[in-house]
Every structure is written in structure tokens, then in C-alpha cells.
Amino acid sequence: MTRILFAEHRRQMPLLLNHIHELRERYLLHRPVPTLAVVGACNAGKSTLINALLQEEISPVDILPATPCPLFFSYGETFSVYADGRFKHSQSGQALFSLLRQKNIRVNRVEITLPNPWLKKCTLIDTPGLDTANQNRLLEKIVPAADFILYLFHQRGPDEQDRYFLYRLKGSPFLHSFNRISFWVNSNCGHPDGSALVAARTAVGEIFGGEVPVNYLNTKNKESVENLRLFMEAELASLALKELEKLFKEEDKHIPRQLARTLSIKEDGLFLNMFWDIHERARTALETGQLSAILQQMRSESRERLAAYNQKVLPAPLPPAVRRETWQAVNFSLIKERLLNLLQRLLKDPALQSLPTREHLRELAKSMANDRFFITLWGPFSSGKSTFLNALMQEVLLPAQDKSTTSSLVRLNHGPEKLAVAHYPLQATLFLLDERDGEVFLCREELVTLNRWLNNPQFLKNLREIEVYTGGKFLRVNIAELSTLLAQTQNLFRPRTFPAGINSHIPAITRSIPAKRAIRAVTAVRLSFYHAREKTFRLADPGELAEFKHLTVTPEEAMLVDGIDIYHPAEMFKLATFIDTPGIDSVHTRYAKTVAGWLNKSDVHLVFFNGRHMLSPAHRDFLRHTAFPEKLRENCFCVINFADTLNRNEKERMAAFLRRELAPPAPLEIHFISALDALRDKHNFAFNQFLRRLEWFILTQRGEKVLLRRIEQIKELLTMEGYESSPTGRVLEKYCRELEEIRQILKQPGGYRLWKMPASLRKG
């Protein structure tokens, strides 16, 4: 039945919309058509959407940001381009693209006219991505000029730039009606999993209040674009009907006087013409009211169709992982263990009589015991870091969603059994406020989580002390005092139209406040517990695996975790400990601080980029100012994920863009992969090629620069000891042979895959 209604709706709606448009052209001819602005982050698909609506390739589309200034598309009999009011000789969209790609272009706006029928209904504005300068321009010039705003999120959902802009947009005096903004998540990067849609609805709801509709859109899917087209035409038609109703309501006051005037006309022809004109306008006025009721019903059906499409867009089923061919990697942890064992045997051997040599060997053993090698994966959220690690394990153990998922550092180690160990600390600190450009925002998710903790009897049993950070210092408080302070803090962020003083209810809608006013607020809450604890999950057990995944994606659980250790028999984990990190551009700004605090402890860096959302402003700032790339460059790999969505030319341009943006003195090592393809297919060439390169690099860095140096130091000490006494040298020779055996392994990067571990290096 629903399909029949939708089919009927699709047949009737275009006719109704065209009729309303004809009425507008007839009675509102001298008024400008409505303006529709498409707004969103870089590479969210705004220009692609403009082209889909116009059904022609006119707005520049590129894998890199290609819209340097607002582009105004309006109807004209011929194609023409005006940059800041000056005519430019352009005959095609390609010429427009060339104009906008000029280096150091300084244009505030470009106006394009073309004979496209859809532009008779509205003027389209394609806007640049949301960096700080563009945000100011959008709020000052574009938003006031727009009758309707179509806000487009990337498939991964809202990030820090989106949230900041929407807060500013909400507080802007130019946005006079929230009913004239529509939110969409562009799912053009593959099958979405629904998490970004939920995250976008939550974020937008907190900012604008209530249930704000957010729908999926796929700019590459005809059905999806057609759904959006009908939705937008209905919204534009609704605006036109309101203008017509206002016009006819004003004219209705003059109809009695006009009729009286026609009665005085003696000439029959003129009388009939005047009377018929009044009759037609009165009939149209009545018809407009009826059309408005019908249109409202069709708008409701259109929203139902969008809701049905949201349900229809489901993730592609992931086939069971096929195990990679058996090959054996150098187990650095095992080699280190055997070297330590060798040193212990040496120190106990009576043949070693020199006290200085013994002392040097003890220092070496102590230093070696503390040696650890870390490979850290970091970058924006939803760039494929967790999926990459799942591909290494050839099974989905780490949760991976469109939205931000990883909330703490996850360490992946080699082990014979699949285990996850969650570490719960003695202290946990929740930061409740976030400041940016002199404005302070309330961290609502942290407040919700804190409220749930304090209402959980099991949680309170282990809670030893509560402290709040206010006035520049931590103060000890009890639960009642904390509730009062939190209520006062929450009331500072309530919109003026909402009542304050509601006991402990966390506001569903929040606003930003000036930093000076936030001095009275609680900045952070520190909780101390009686006992630090750990929880172990056997990941081979489906029930415990599900429990582990629930822990990692549920804020109430995840915010308590200080870190997670995973043990897995994947061969790559023999080479080093891999670290999965939270996304640095998430709306949760604490994630960026967590990553920044860890980077100096890491030995190798895999910096991830989303191939369809390249170098967001937050990511660029982090790379330039926080990550100290000049210190990391030698041990840094740039990994551009979702390479399956890029062609060869796009990859080359993206690599050049990245090198130019980061501007290093030496070329960056850039690799294009598809982590999801690698998870599905063990033979994925690009992924395996990158792993071989990474293995060689680890062998060089950890083998030659760390373990080989240790081996040479031990051999040098033993050789010196052997020269003092020939019998001693003969006794110590067996240790030298064992060290030489290990050295040969480490001196042949890549050859270890054909090498069988000798008995001297096997456990037990």
C-alpha cells in the first residue's frame, strides 16, 4: 500500500509543483526567485549535488577543495560568468573550472547564468568548505541572502568544524527561521552503517532543539537525488504559496471597491474584461489556499519517502574473512626475551669474571627490558584506522563505524590467545566545557555520562572522592554539592527561552556563552576510586566479543576506560605494538589532546587521511601546530584510505596537494590503500605492498638501530673479556655464536618470511 501511495505521489507532485511555479511566474514576476544555499564541510559533496540538481556538470568537482568562493547559479538565456561583477569569457563549465583553479585567485563571488529550467525556480549558491575565514563570509553574506539552506554532512557525520559553525549559525540574527534549513548526510562513499545519521541528529538536536530531521542523501544515486529534488521543490513551492497568499490577502481588501468601480463602466467589453480579471484573481486566491493544503499533504508524504530511503540504505554484508597465507614474521618480543635470557645466563656463568663487564651487561639488560616499539595510527575520525587493524587481524574485532568510534588508546600486541583487557584507573577526569575563539560550549555527552554514573549504585560503591575544578583549582565536594554546582553550570548554557533551575535535568538544547561568563561554571570533575581494576574479554567467545564492542562504543562505559590492550596472533603484531587512537577532529576535543600527548612516545607514525574528505581544517592545524611534523617526518607514513574511490589522476593530485600543504623539506612517503577491501580480500595488492614496506622499515628501525646495536655491544664486551684469558674466550664463544645467529636474521630485511625460527630462539 505504501508503494502505491509513493507511486501516486510521484506522479501528481511534479504537476502540482509546476502549476505553483506557473502561478508564481504570473503573479510574482517582478520578485526574485528564492535562493537556495548549499553549505557544508570541504569535500562533503556540495558541488556534486549542485550538478545533480541541474543535471549537468557545471559546478567544479574535484577530490580536493575546488570552490574558492561562493558560486551563484541563476537563470539566463545564455551561459555567462561574472567574477566580482566583471564579465569573463567562458563558454563552458570546463572554462569555469579553469578560472577557479587559477593560482592565488582573489575573487569574492562568481555569478553564473545558464539556460537551465530548474534555475527558473530558484537561484543556487555553491559555497566553499567550512574553514574559519569561510565561516565568517557565510554568516555575514551568504546566510542573510538565502531563503533556504541545505546543509550537507560528510558520510562520517558532523565534526568539530560543523558543530562550531552550527552553533554560530544558531546564534546568528540572520537565520530568522529554523524551518528554512535542512540537514543531510551524504552517503556517496559506500554503504553507510547508520551511525553517522544518529550522530548528526543528536548533534543538530542539541544545538537547534527538539527532533530536527536529518536524512541520508547519495549524490551518486539517481533515486536519492530525485527524492531530494522533489523535497526541495516542495519547500520552494511552499515559500511561493506563502508569498502568493500574502499578495492575495492584501488584494482581497480591495476587491469590493474594484467591483463597485466596474459597475460604473458603460462599455460591455471593458466591463467584462475588468470583471473577468477580478474573478480570475479571486478564483486563484481561493485555489491558492486549496493548493497549500494539498502541498502540505504531499510534503508529509515526501518526508515518509525520505524516511523509507533512510531504512533502505543498509551496510553491505561483509563476507567471512579468509585467513592470509601462513608466513612467519620476526618476533621482536621473543628475540628480546631470548637476548635477556642470554644475558641472565652470562651473568650466572663463572667464566665471566670481570666485574666491569658484569656491570655493563646488567645495565644493558635493564635498558633492553624497557625497550618497546610502538606504531601509532592517527588522523581524523572515520579515516579507516580501526578497519586497517581489523584487516591486519583478518577479522572484525575493533568496532568501526561512520561516526567517531574509538574513544581511548587501544594497544594491539602479539599473543597466542585473542584477548582484550580494559584498564580502569584510580582517577578519571571529565572535562565539561570546551572553549574556542572566546566562546565556551557545554560538553553535553560528558554531563549525561556523569549523571548516569552518579545514579548507578554499583558505580558509587567504588567511588572514593569527588573534586570539581572551578575558580582555577580543584575543590572536594559531596554528591549533593556536585548536583547543585552542575545545575548552576547547566543553567548558564540554557537558551534564554527555556526555564532555568530545573533539578539536575540536562538541557536538550544548549548555547555557547562568552568565556568571561563561564568563570562561574564547573570546568571539570575529577573522580577518585578505591581500586584500579581490569576487565578481560575472551574475543574468541561471541558473547564476550559483543560485550567488548558494547564497552568501546557506549560513552558511559568507554569514558571510564584508561586504555585497552588487545592480544592477537596476527603476524604483523610480532613486529611491534600497534596503537589505535581517537579521531583528532571529532566533536569531542579531548580526543585531540589524548593523541597529542601520546605522539612523542611513538616510534613510527601512520597518519591516516580520508580519501573523500581530504585534510579538514582541524586535521591541517593539528599536523602543522600540534604534531610537530619536523620531528616525526623521518618515521612517518601518510596513508590515504578509500583509495578504491579514486582514479589515478586524483591520486597523483592528492599526493601533490598533501606534500604542498605540509611543505616538508624532504618528500613524504604516501601510500594509497583501501582497508575495507583488504579486510574482504586477503590478496589486496596495494595493502600487501604497503605492509611489505612497513615491515622493511620496522626491521631497519627496530632491528638495525635497536637490537643490532644491543647485540654488537654484548659481542664487544664478550670479545674484550675473551682477550684477557684464552680459556674464558673459548667458554664464551657459544654465546657469541648465538648472538651472530640473531644478527644474521636482523641483517636480512624481508628474508625472514622464508626463514624458520631456530631452536635457540623458540620458547621452551
TrEMBL record:
<dbReference type="InterPro" id="IPR027417">
    <property type="entry name" value="P-loop_NTPase"/>
</dbReference>
<dbReference type="GO" id="GO:0008053">
    <property type="term" value="P:mitochondrial fusion"/>
</dbReference>
<dbReference type="GO" id="GO:0016020">
    <property type="term" value="C:membrane"/>
</dbReference>
<feature type="domain" description="Dynamin N-terminal">
    <location>
        <begin position="375"/>
        <end position="419"/>
    </location>
</feature>
<feature type="domain" description="Dynamin N-terminal">
    <location>
        <begin position="36"/>
        <end position="155"/>
    </location>
</feature>
<keyword id="KW-0547">Nucleotide-binding</keyword>
<dbReference type="InterPro" id="IPR045063">
    <property type="entry name" value="Dynamin_N"/>
</dbReference>
<keyword id="KW-0378">Hydrolase</keyword>
<dbReference type="GO" id="GO:0005525">
    <property type="term" value="F:GTP binding"/>
</dbReference>
<dbReference type="InterPro" id="IPR027094">
    <property type="entry name" value="Mitofusin_fam"/>
</dbReference>
<keyword id="KW-0342">GTP-binding</keyword>
<dbReference type="Pfam" id="PF00350">
    <property type="entry name" value="Dynamin_N"/>
</dbReference>
<dbReference type="GO" id="GO:0003924">
    <property type="term" value="F:GTPase activity"/>
</dbReference>
<keyword id="KW-0472">Membrane</keyword>
<protein>
    <submittedName>
        <fullName>Dynamin family protein</fullName>
    </submittedName>
</protein>
